[in-house]
Each structure stands twice: as C-alpha cells, then as structure tokens.
Specification:
Pfam family, one: Sel_put
Radius of gyration: 16 Å
Protein name: YbdD/YjiX family protein
Number of strands: 0
Number of helices: 3
Structural class: mainly alpha
Distance between the termini: 43 Å
Shape: flat
Order of helices and strands: HHH
Helix content: 55-70%
Largest sheet: none
Strand content: under 5%
Mean pLDDT: 89
Length: 63
C-alpha cells in the first residue's frame, strides 16, 4: 500500500509540474537569490506578466 501511495504522489507531482503549478515557487526562489532586497512579485503579478509575455511572443503554439 505504501508503494501505491508513493506512486500516486509521484504522479500528482508530475501532472502539477507539467501544468506549471510549481513555476511561481521556482521563480520566487530564483528571484530571492538573484535579486536580494528586491520585493518578489505576488503570484498574481507573476501569472499576469507571464500571460502578457506569452501573448506578445506566441512562439510555438497552435493558436
């Protein structure tokens, strides 16, 4: 049963990583290390900026 629970946690982690759920945490950690003393944008500001950048530079997406 422990192996099944571990596999389910691993699958959940993989799916949430694939969907970008951990992106803000990685960004905030990087920002704190690279720019000490500068306030970290809120999660809402981060996603707003990320979507705006995606709209400005669509890259390789279908639509």
């Amino acid at each position: 049963m422990d192996g099944l629970a571990r596999a389910l946690r691993g699958a959940r982690w993989w799916i949430t990583s694939l969907m970008g759920d951990h992106d803000y945490e990685r960004f905030a950690a990087h920002h704190r290390l690279s720019h000490p003393g500068v306030p970290v944008p809120t999660e809402r500001e981060y996603w707003r900026g990320r979507y705006a950048e995606s709209d400005r530079n669509p890259g390789a997406r279908c639509c």
